[in-house]
Design brief:
- This is Glycogen debranching enzyme GlgX.
- Among the domains are: 172-272 and 317-578, TIM Barrel, CATH 3.20.20.80; 586-700, Golgi alpha-mannosidase II (Immunoglobulin-like, Sandwich), CATH 2.60.40.1180.
- Helix content is 20%, strand content 21%.
- It contains 15 helices and 32 strands.
- α9 packs across α10 (425-432).
- The protein is elongated.
- It starts with 11 loop residues before the first strand and ends with a strand.
Length: 701
């Protein structure tokens, strides 16, 4: 290695008191040059240094007397042979895959492309490399000082069974909050502010699941349409927090201070991470990093035509997790965010990609084995989006032990049940009970199922009950994008209305869905803003709407405030009862000590459901009697919960069951009646009227 015998264990730029060590992996390169820049305004590099090839295809260079803050990139030389999978082009300065901080904010430029006719309809194999130098517009990286005083940060370590996830966007949550200082809105510092944390704490959630914060870049189509990739599922640097989410020029410090503040409030931080593809897009996309460093290593190529990519992500390319370097990159990135940035877990976008090799998806894939064996990563929360767009891409319940999964079957079942769909009572019971039909055969606990009604992708909860169809015209794709199958209902008028009866039906529908979510076994995830009745005006794919369509509206009228209070009460009910924090599946068997069952599924007459009832397509009512376990898991009558669900068009009279201990049924909530009008106590063996399309929760006391 030029200049020093010391080789740090890490790829990327590693500073010390004497200088900076640089290391870059490229298996197929013939030559690599380190490019140093004076500033982000410099049109070309001021120094270009040869890097030495060492073992394991690692190119290294030691630069004495260099300090944190310096800007750098790489020029990588090698064959330009798209038909063999190689796209080397030394006229392009490339970002460091291990870069900790972006040094120049990328603005789309034609010279990002490595193809001479990259935008024309021509065979990629026949295109010549573009010789235009991009040094003045390349997305450089900046060497950073890793030191930070964590002030004795203590991770909340919330048990899975007690976890309540809140999916949100850093900018969307904070951009319009009137109590957050204007200079902090839309940033990590804004999410760390007292008003933001106060809302999360008063709501009662235990973890924020942040939409991607890795450094991203804009896409050509969106730039030309004057739009932006707001969701940021478009990563450029897997180690760097996005500059656009920082109030200061130091997003690393700002992100760490945000984590520290959230931890002090007892809130965990889960990152939505996108390792399945990159911002470089398809074969005609820009060359910013991986494509120019070693295209054949980093991407899955079409075996019949290596000039093209296997696009099983729908985003133009797919990271190649069959290669050890790609797995190492992802593992090192994850470990960095845990050890250096103190995050508490990850949600993996299109997680099936991570478990694919040339033979398809496997639970025993090398990446999963490495995570399981890692003493750091095996201890954090791991959540998979268990699908991609490839062959056999739907892999719900196929991820390894220790992982949780987004359960889209929960979403679809709950939505359709409350629309009165036939043949859904049995499905709804399974989802309420933690989806044991999926996860119990693998001996995975109920928390494996991440239950949700809505998420960032799709209608908000308010829009789900206000729109019959999507309205995505603002996305510039003639309303072709977004899902057409939403299981939504507008209750008589498409979109906004002031008609009291329609507003009442919509509110009750929303309450039914939110109550179902928060009173089911499994791990609930609230889509941020649903508690505020946030609307996107019918847009169910607002990925490019960095505006009031996506930003939370914090001006709460009476209806919004009332629904917020309703959601808070539900969360407190969930937290107060051990019924909903079980780490074992329900059995329906009689406990020999108490003579009680942990769950009984009841018909309106109070008798237990029979096999024929489960298969009755016209059945649209369901009652669940959950008995309460004590610390020794012995079942107790007192504290038992009776959940009544009527998705029918007519009122239903429920015969309230009796329990061995003297007491009464106390009505904790009824989605048809406001709280101060509840008749709170009802004796056993009396009839309880439940209005059409209504849910009620009663407790035995």
């Amino acid at each position: 290695m030029t200049g020093s015998p010391h080789i740090p264990p890490s790829q990327g730029a590693v500073p010390s008191t004497e200088g900076v060590h640089f290391a870059l992996f490229s298996e197929h390169a013939r030559q690599v040059e380190l490019c140093l820049f004076e500033s982000d305004k410099t049109a070309t590099e001021t120094r270009r240094l040869h890097m030495d090839r060492g073992p394991d295809h690692l190119w290294t260079r030691w630069v004495p007397d260099l300090k944190p803050g310096c800007l750098y990139g790489f020029r990588v030389f090698g064959p330009y042979a798209p038909d063999q999978g190689h796209r080397f082009n030394p006229s392009k300065v490339l970002a460091d895959p291990y870069g900790r901080l972006l040094g120049r904010m990328p603005k789309w430029n034609r010279r990002w492309h490595s193809l001479s006719s990259g935008l024309k309809e021509e065979s990629v194999s026949n295109m010549r490399p573009d010789g235009a130098d991009n040094a003045d517009c390349a997305p450089l990286c900046r060497v950073v000082d890793p030191e930070f005083d964590w002030q004795g940060d203590r991770l909340p370590n919330t048990p899975w069974a007690e976890t309540i996830l809140y999916e949100t966007h850093v900018k969307g949550f904070t951009r319009q909050h009137p109590d957050i200082p204007p200079s902090l809105r839309g940033t990590f510092a804004g999410l760390a502010s007292e008003p933001a944390i106060a809302h999360l704490k008063s709501l009662g959630v235990t973890a924020v699941e942040l939409l991607p914060v890795h450094q991203g870049a804009e896409e050509q189509r969106l730039v030309h349409s004057q739009l932006t990739n707001y969701w940021n599922y478009n990563s450029l640097l897997f180690f760097a927090p996005d500059l656009r989410l920082a109030a200061t020029g130091d997003p690393i410090r700002e992100f760490r201070e945000m984590v520290l503040s959230l931890h002090e409030a007892g809130l965990e931080v889960i990152l939505d991470v996108v390792y399945n593809h990159t911002v470089e897009g398809d074969a005609r996309g820009p060359t910013l990093c991986f494509r120019g460093i070693d295209n054949r290593t980093y991407y899955r190529l079409d075996p019949e035509n290596p000039a093209q990519y296997e696009n099983i992500t729908g985003c133009g390319n797919t990271m190649n997790f069959s290669h050890a370097q790609v797995r190492q990159l992802a593992l090192d990135s994850l470990r960095y965010w845990v050890t250096d940035m103190h995050v508490d877990g990850f949600r993996f976008d299109l997680g099936v990609v991570l478990g694919r090799d040339e033979n398809g998806f496997s639970t025993d894939a090398a990446f999963f084995q490495a995570v399981h064996a890692d003493p750091v990563l095996s201890q954090v929360k791991l959540i998979a989006e268990p699908w991609d767009l490839g062959h056999e891409g739907y892999q719900v319940a196929r991820f390894p032990d220790g992982w949780s999964e987004w359960n889209d079957q929960y979403r679809q079942t709950a939505r359709r049940f409350w629309l009165g769909a036939p043949d859904h009572v049995g499905l709804m019971a399974r989802r309420l009970a933690g989806s044991g039909d999926f996860y119990q055969p693998q001996n995975r606990p109920p928390r494996t199922s991440v239950n949700y009604i809505t998420c960032h992708d799709g209608f908000t909860l308010q829009d789900l009950v206000s729109y019959q169809r999507k309205h995505n015209e603002a996305n510039g794709e003639h309303n072709r994008d977004g899902n057409n199958d939403n299981a939504s209902c507008n209750h008589g008028i498409e979109g906004a209305t002031r008609k009291p009866e329609i507003l009442k039906r919509r509110t009750r529908h929303m309450k039914n869905l939110m109550a179902t979510l928060l009173l089911s076994l499994g791990t609930p995830m609230i889509s941020g803003g649903d508690e505020l009745r946030r609307t996107q005006r019918g847009n169910n794919n607002a990925y490019c709407q960095d505006n009031s369509t996506s930003w939370y509206d914090w001006h709460l009228d009476h209806g919004k405030q009332e629904f917020l209070e309703f959601t808070r009460r539900l969360i407190q009910l969930r937290k107060s009862s051990p019924i909903f924090q079980r780490d074992r599946f329900l059995t329906g068997e009689t406990d020999p000590d108490s003579g009680l069952k942990d769950v009984a599924w009841l018909k309106p007459d109070g008798t237990e459901m029979e096999e024929t009832d489960w298969h009755d397509p016209e059945m649209r009512t369901l009652a669940c009697l959950f008995t309460c376990p004590n610390v020794n898991q012995t079942l107790l009558a007192r504290g038992s919960i009776l959940l009544l669900m009527n998705a029918d068009r007519e009122e239903c009279l429920w015969n309230l069951p009796s329990l061995p201990l003297d007491g009464n049924w106390e009505v904790l909530l009824n989605t048809e009646t406001i709280e101060n009008r509840l008749q709170t106590l009802h004796p056993a063996d009396t009839l309880y009227p439940l209005a059409a399309h209504t849910l009620a929760v009663l407790q035995w006391n």
